[in-house]
């Protein structure tokens, strides 16, 4: 990834990148809007001798996806913070949308297009940790929780290893074996940690980032459990098949769960192509728009931290978000 200022090449596989570029270009301009012609002219420099008309086709197709983002998010969760005029020729950043909705969406755009190896920490917050915490909240709502104490969710990944976290539902910081023991106790599945390999334990999270479950009053095993991975950036496809609940329990627990957890795969990216194949490989695929649909009534502290990160990251990259 070349960074947030990279101009995507016009081709069918880059429609999501072109869409993100259009959104970010709105934030680079004082009037908070950009036209399809503006984007076409910028992209012509990367078009490798393509005609303006040919480039415009890709720009128009990407704008159609921006319109699809609105419908894909729906009207039950956060609101898409951009609007497209009736001709599809002008895209504008919506200042009338609630700050929380704008911050959540911009957080995921920036986490996709910024370099998440060396540019992920801003305002003392780590974007990977924040995204796992956001996905935890989405899990709770996806499982029908939020106001239902039968639904529990924890962060098992990077966020568990960060000291000073304000999320009181995170697993205690400690060794991987302790984390697995606590997970088995909370789920009432797997009995406890039992590494089948006799070598040194180097795992930090076993490819598992978030866990969600819905319990029953009888407190018996056999519950609706979800195991999720959370990925920022654009290089997430190679990891689609790495989280296997069966393998996780085979490698790290004494017993298999009564019912295998459902696999969840969270990405900050917007996914357009090969949805079926990627869903088959990764499980229930939650891209940026699906995540937005379940971002409602988020904890104030999480929103405060995400907003602080977005403001600092945007300022560094010359984006005008307020």
Question: Can you tag this structure with a few keywords?
Answer:
5-stranded mixed beta sheet, 322 residues, alpha+beta, 10 helices, 10 strands, 39% helix, 3-stranded antiparallel beta sheet
List the helices and strands and how they pair.
Blueprint: H1 15-28, E1 33-35, H2 36-44, H3 52-73, E2 82-84, E3 90-93, H4 99-113, E4 121-122, E5 125-126, H5 127-142, E6 151-155, H6 176-187, E7 210-214, E8 224-231, H7 245-252, E9 262-267, H8 275-282, E10 284-286, H9 288-293, H10 300-316
Parallel strand pairs: 8-9, 9-10
Antiparallel strand pairs: 1-3, 2-3, 4-5, 6-7, 7-8
Helix pairs in contact: 1-3, 2-3, 4-10, 5-10
Task: Give a written overview of the molecule.
The protein has helices at 15-28, 36-44, 52-73, 99-113, 127-142, 176-187, 245-252, 275-282, 288-293, 300-316, and strands at 33-35, 82-84, 90-93, 121-122, 125-126, 151-155, 210-214, 224-231, 262-267, 284-286. Helices cover 39% and strands 13% of the residues. The strands form three sheets. It has a five-stranded mixed beta sheet. The chain has ten helices and ten strands. The two termini are 27 Å apart. The longest helix has 22 residues, at 52-73. It has two domains: 12-120 and 311-316, no CATH class; 123-297, no CATH class. The chain is elongated and about 60 Å long. It is an alpha+beta fold and 322 residues long. Helix 2 packs across helix 3 (52-73).
């Amino acid at each position: 990834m070349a960074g947030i200022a990279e101009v995507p090449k016009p081709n069918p596989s880059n429609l999501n990148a072109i869409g993100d570029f259009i959104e970010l270009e709105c934030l680079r301009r004082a009037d908070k809007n950009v036209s399809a012609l503006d984007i076409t002219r910028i992209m012509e420099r990367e078009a490798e001798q393509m005609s303006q008309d040919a480039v415009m086709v890709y720009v128009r197709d990407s704008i159609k996806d921006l319109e699809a983002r609105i419908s894909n998010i729906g009207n039950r969760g956060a609101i898409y913070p951009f609007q497209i005029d009736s001709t599809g020729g002008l895209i504008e950043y919506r200042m009338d949308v609630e700050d929380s909705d704008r911050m959540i969406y911009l957080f995921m755009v920036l986490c996709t297009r910024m370099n998440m190896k060396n540019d992920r920490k801003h305002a003392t917050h780590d974007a990977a940790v924040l995204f796992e915490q956001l996905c935890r909240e989405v899990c709770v709502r996806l499982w029908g929780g939020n106001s239902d104490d039968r639904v529990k969710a924890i962060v098992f990944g990077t966020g568990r290893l960060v000291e000073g976290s304000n999320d009181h539902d995170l697993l205690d910081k400690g060794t991987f074996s302790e984390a697995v023991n606590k997970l088995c106790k909370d789920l009432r599945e797997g009995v406890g940690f039992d590494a089948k390999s006799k070598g040194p334990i180097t795992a930090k999270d076993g490819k598992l980032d978030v866990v969600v479950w819905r319990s029953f009053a009888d407190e018996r095993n056999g519950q609706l459990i979800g195991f999720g991975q959370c990925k920022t950036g654009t290089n997430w496809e190679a990891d689609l098949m790495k989280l296997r609940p069966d393998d996780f329990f085979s490698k790290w627990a004494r017993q298999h769960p009564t019912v295998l957890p459902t696999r969840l795969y969270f990405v900050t990216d917007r996914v357009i192509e090969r949805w079926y194949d990627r869903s088959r490989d990764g499980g229930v695929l939650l891209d940026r728009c699906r995540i937005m649909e379940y971002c409602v009534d988020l904890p104030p502290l999480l929103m405060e931290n995400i907003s602080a990160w977005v403001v600092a990251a945007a300022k560094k990259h010359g984006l005008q978000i307020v």
